[in-house]
Amino acid sequence: QVQLVESGGGLVQAGGSLRLSCAASGGTFSMYDMRWYRQAPGKEREFVAGINWSGSRTNHADSVKGRFTISRDNAKNTVYLQLNSLKPEDTAIYYCSYASHWGQGTQVTVSS
Question: What does DSSP say about strands 101-102 and 92-98: parallel, antiparallel, or unpaired?
């Protein structure tokens, strides 16, 4: 059974940084593109960043481009999201996903 477990969220001041991790188990992680999404209170879930199976190609939403960076380590079955220059509007629950599988999310709260 596929399981995705996010970690690394927390409370940080504006301008700060966090590194989110998503550990995968029970599936063929290294064969799939991975994505990060986020959902803020009262808003729909939105795409944040994606990375192809090998890590050679990435894309980021315009709202986070230049501040967030997605990466992966297939040997560890883990995908990362580095969050820099955080803003209060980045406050959300962050989820990782591949195929039809989702993690439970990790909360990121940015104070002004």
Answer: antiparallel
80 with 72: CB under 8 angstroms? yes
Residues 36 and 56: their CA atoms lie apart, in Å, by 16
Which pLDDT score is estimated for 74? 95
Question: Distance between the two ends of the chain, CA-based, in angstroms?
Answer: 40
pLDDT of residue 1: 87
Residue ranges for the chain with pLDDT beneath 70 = none
